[in-house]
Automatic annotation (TrEMBL):
<dbReference type="InterPro" id="IPR014284">
    <property type="entry name" value="RNA_pol_sigma-70_dom"/>
</dbReference>
<protein>
    <submittedName>
        <fullName>RNA polymerase sigma factor CnrH</fullName>
    </submittedName>
</protein>
<keyword id="KW-0805">Transcription regulation</keyword>
<dbReference type="InterPro" id="IPR013249">
    <property type="entry name" value="RNA_pol_sigma70_r4_t2"/>
</dbReference>
<dbReference type="InterPro" id="IPR007627">
    <property type="entry name" value="RNA_pol_sigma70_r2"/>
</dbReference>
<dbReference type="Pfam" id="PF08281">
    <property type="entry name" value="Sigma70_r4_2"/>
</dbReference>
<feature type="domain" description="RNA polymerase sigma factor 70 region 4 type 2">
    <location>
        <begin position="98"/>
        <end position="149"/>
    </location>
</feature>
<dbReference type="Pfam" id="PF04542">
    <property type="entry name" value="Sigma70_r2"/>
</dbReference>
<dbReference type="InterPro" id="IPR013325">
    <property type="entry name" value="RNA_pol_sigma_r2"/>
</dbReference>
<dbReference type="GO" id="GO:0006352">
    <property type="term" value="P:DNA-templated transcription initiation"/>
</dbReference>
<dbReference type="InterPro" id="IPR036388">
    <property type="entry name" value="WH-like_DNA-bd_sf"/>
</dbReference>
<feature type="domain" description="RNA polymerase sigma-70 region 2">
    <location>
        <begin position="10"/>
        <end position="72"/>
    </location>
</feature>
<comment type="similarity">
    <text>Belongs to the sigma-70 factor family. ECF subfamily.</text>
</comment>
<keyword id="KW-0804">Transcription</keyword>
<keyword id="KW-0731">Sigma factor</keyword>
<dbReference type="InterPro" id="IPR013324">
    <property type="entry name" value="RNA_pol_sigma_r3/r4-like"/>
</dbReference>
<dbReference type="InterPro" id="IPR039425">
    <property type="entry name" value="RNA_pol_sigma-70-like"/>
</dbReference>
Amino acid sequence: MASLTQIEVLLPEFRAYAIAICAYSDDAEELVQDAIERALRTENRPTVLDELRPWMFRVIRNLHYDDLRKRRVRREYLAAEKRLFNEAGPSDVARDILIRMAFEKLPPDMREVLCLVDIMGLKYAEAANVMSVANGTIMSRISRARKALLALVEGTDARGEIEKSRR
């Protein structure tokens, strides 16, 4: 197994390679540290210095490209979020946040029926099958859950609907 001493001998080369492929020297140093950490955790790393050297370069390269992909995905996600925010407008976003917060305050059984019917789009019969209850039960549960959610969003008392659902 490659020893820490072998890695220390090759450290200047690892740093030089990382600097060559990274835009910033801080990123390069972090990349080398991550690669060394990975090498030390891997049991089947090369034991011979001549094999360790290219193997570590490959580890550094793969970690670098993994990081670039993560950054690209984050940028794309943030750009999409910004675009959605701009298209929807602040009042729509605030309303959605308010609804999500109210949804989280509902009891699990109400969240379940709302999720199946209103979010996932299941028909009442399908939701009844999933929950192993009658269609009429789904209809009354969805009605109470919607009323309770609306009450929470509007800031009125939702306890009545929540209590009915527990009976």
